Amino acid sequence: TLLAVERTTRILVVEDEAPIREGLESLFGTQGMEALGAPDGERALELLGAGGFDLVVLDLMLPRVPGLEVLRRMRGRGDPTPVLVLTARGAEDDVVAGLEAGADDYVTKPFGVRELVARVRGLLRRPSRAGAEDAQAPRRLVLGDVTLDLDALEVRWAGGTLRLTSREGDLLSFLTARAHRAVTREELLVEVWGYRDGSIRTRTVDVHVQQLRAKLRGVPGGEEWIGTVRGRGYRFEGELA
Ligand code: CA
Known about the structure:
Distance between the termini: 54 Å
Order of helices and strands: EHEHEHEHEHEEEEHEHHEE
Bound molecules: calcium ion
Oligomer: single chain
């Protein structure tokens, strides 16, 4: 007899507000997942150190060790576990800082349960690496004097090096594989973020693109790389060698 052994999805919920934390734990429970709660950043880091999580839901406003610091330390030690950050309404700076520190997506409080579950399922699906069809695509691209190394998540040129987050790497991988063609926000949500339903209402794509553009301004010619296609989405406009 063949036994299909399927490991239960494990989610770490880092949130100091007990009603939200416990609500999320039971919500994930009803979705057939196993959720563990951490009430502060220190406990979160302990649990993360032991490993074995498929996703982290991370509130940014936390006692002891703040959420951003938890995220930076995770990424600093090479932990690639997808992270969905929870931010307060109106805290745009938190969103930008979270994405810069390596978060994969964010949800603004108060959030709807269905939306949160859809986001979590999307991030767990992780077709990322910008989709199977791109598996053979060159991961090291040359634009003039600049090398875009998507494996190392670096942009390198004579004057410096820019580090990319893994999500920024996925985004650039998807866009460069379709250079000079318009790509819609919906395609990006489905293909890069893994959201099956591209109609999910989120500004994640736009916020990530804005953030990436701001970083690329420091790269020679980099400010030209990602163009906006009005009413449609984005297009990679750099000249690939
Ligand atoms: Ca909090």
